[in-house]
């Protein structure tokens, strides 16, 4: 079937879709041990899409035991890297071959526009699997510089059983940023998608088997964080826990690891990223286009969202006017309409969170310049108008806390020192943008910002070659690039006396 071209065709495809909601353990779909399920509700219109297995401790135990068994047997962990590479590439090909279905599931499940779920999410997920697979037979171990009568080998080995707990904002993509290096290096994985968006992970598990990944190597356990998520985090036989999600839960996972087997914990958490526009920005219009996209793309449900726009006073009014105009291109619409750029927020609870922050912005004295309300309520779905606050102080709640919605806080500054001070005045350190024509100022600012990613004269750049992750309470370790392989391998030093 060719890719649907309009909303009606996507809807037709949605109506004929058979949606799988079961867990995937040891190569097979199955109900949760308790037989419990929960409704999977689409934020597009409030419809129940399917019932999803609500996994818990017993399912975690079963999946981890299977993952361990296959790891020890070596079906995957002991394959030559070149063989794992071939399977990973096939896995990526299968994601691409099923792009429309996966994109549709993602859109129905969490409300993002269909134009992005295929082109950004599925394409990016396939790229992550392919890139990691292609890399794995090109990484060499090391020989230490020893005396003549000895050899010191420094080798990398897979860690064993990896539990991956991922969020709802880019469900497939975040999962594949973990699965790529985790599987390529030979580990077994138990993946727990968010209860708000489990469908693509569940579907993808079957594609892994089709690609040739042995049974038990990739298991998917849908369910809640406080049940199956917690069970995995406390599990005594999980070697490594990789996580993308909020800083609050990230901290909790470190406690669980300490209370159990001291499993390695790698965290990609929240952000409150400053996007700094100096008076000498090379092109204000481009800065405005990027600033609007940085807060409205994916309904603002992006860890790297440019949620704090720091603008130097000389260009403040002009920039805000340009962003207001640009925001017209980001008004919410039906997510299955290929023209829609901004879809539904993930659920009713998230809608209420965002509206609560908007009320706090008004109450604390920020100037509401645009948006500020729920829209399209008549659809039965949950949509928020992109919102711009000016005259924001960095101490205000909307400038301090991660809203995870399309709400922009504009903060004014004068001079590089003040920009850096405000930019760094946050518990987070994920990303930052810097707009200036002065190369020296650009480098000085980039160096001074305590964040894992800095974008100069654009926003949100990078590909699989660049590490992704944050300083401070935005987490530790990195996804993407060869640095991600560090999370999934142990280093062994073998010393041989000759
Ligand atoms: P969340 O922390 O609420 O949930 C993330 C995952 O953790 C979900 O699967 C959830 O079920 C699980 N979980 C919740 N409680 C748990 C517990 N007690 N034990 C084990 N697992 C538990 O985050 P979210 O709302 O799904 O996602 C939004 C957050 O993700 C934002 O803070 C965003 O910044 C962050 N995020 C970060 C990155 C990054 O790379 N740094 C990327 C995307 C999203």
TrEMBL record:
GO terms for molecular function: aldehyde dehydrogenase (quinone) activity; aldehyde dehydrogenase [NAD(P)+] activity. PROSITE patterns: ALDEHYDE_DEHYDR_CYS, ALDEHYDE_DEHYDR_GLU. Its EC number is 1.2.5.2. It comes from the Bacteria. CDD domains: ALDH_GABALDH-PuuC. InterPro entries: Ald_DH/histidinol_DH (IPR016161), Ald_DH_C (IPR016163), Ald_DH_CS_CYS (IPR016160), Ald_DH_CS_GLU (IPR029510), Ald_DH_N (IPR016162), Aldehyde_DH_dom (IPR015590). This is Aldehyde dehydrogenase (Acceptor). It comes from Shewanella loihica (strain ATCC BAA-1088 / PV-4).
């Amino acid at each position: 079937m060719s890719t649907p071209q309009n909303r009606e065709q996507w809807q037709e495809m949605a109506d004929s879709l058979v949606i799988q909601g079961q867990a995937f353990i040891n190569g097979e779909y199955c109900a949760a041990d308790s037989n419990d399920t929960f409704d999977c509700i689409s934020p597009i219109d409030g419809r129940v899409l399917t019932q999803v297995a609500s996994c818990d401790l017993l399912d975690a135990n079963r999946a981890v035991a299977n993952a361990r068994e296959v790891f020890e047997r070596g079906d995957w962990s002991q394959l030559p890297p070149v063989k794992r590479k071939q399977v990973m590439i096939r896995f990526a090909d299968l994601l691409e071959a099923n792009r429309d279905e996966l994109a549709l599931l993602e859109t129905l499940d969490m409300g993002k526009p269909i134009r992005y779920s295929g082109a950004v999410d599925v394409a990016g997920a396939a790229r992550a699997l392919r890139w990691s697979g292609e890399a794995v037979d090109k990484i060499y171990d090391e020989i230490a510089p020893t005396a003549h009568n000895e050899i010191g080998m420094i080798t990398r080995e897979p860690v064993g059983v990896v539990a991956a707990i991922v969020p709802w904002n880019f469900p497939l993509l975040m999962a594949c940023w973990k699965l790529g290096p985790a599987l390529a290096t030979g580990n077994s994985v138990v993946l727990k998608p968010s209860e708000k968006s489990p469908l693509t992970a569940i579907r993808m598990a079957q594609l892994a088997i089709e690609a040739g990944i042995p049974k038990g190597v990739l298991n998917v356990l849908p369910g809640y964080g406080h049940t199956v998520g917690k069970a995995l985090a406390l599990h005594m036989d999980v070697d490594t826990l990789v996580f993308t999600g909020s800083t609050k839960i990230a901290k909790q996972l470190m406690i669980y690891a300490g209370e159990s087997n001291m499993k390695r914990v790698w965290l990609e958490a929240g952000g409150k990223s400053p996007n700094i526009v100096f008076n000498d920005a090379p092109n204000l219009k481009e800065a405005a286009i990027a600033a609007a996209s940085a807060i409205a793309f994916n309904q603002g449900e992006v860890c790297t969202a440019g949620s704090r726009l720091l603008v130097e006073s000389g260009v403040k009014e002009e920039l805000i006017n340009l962003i207001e105009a640009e925001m017209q291109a980001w008004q919410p619409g039906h997510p299955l309409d290929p023209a829609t750029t901004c879809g539904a927020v993930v659920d009713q609870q998230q809608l209420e969170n965002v509206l609560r922050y908007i009320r706090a912005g008004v109450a604390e004295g920020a100037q509401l310049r645009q948006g500020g309300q729920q829209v399209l309520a008549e659809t039965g779905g949950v949509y928020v108008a992109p919102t711009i606050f000016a005259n924001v102080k960095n101490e205000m709640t909307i400038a301090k806390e991660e809203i995870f919605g399309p709400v922009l806080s504009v903060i004014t500054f004068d001079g590089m020192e003040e920009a850096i001070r405000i930019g760094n005045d946050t518990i987070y350190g994920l990303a930052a943008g810097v707009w200036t024509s002065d190369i020296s100022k650009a480098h000085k600012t980039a160096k001074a910002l305590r964040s894992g990613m800095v974008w100069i004269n654009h926003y949100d750049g990078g590909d699989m070659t660049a590490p992704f992750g944050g300083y401070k309470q935005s987490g530790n370790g990195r996804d993407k690039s060869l640095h991600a392989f560090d999370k999934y391998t142990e280093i062994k030093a073998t010393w041989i006396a000759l």
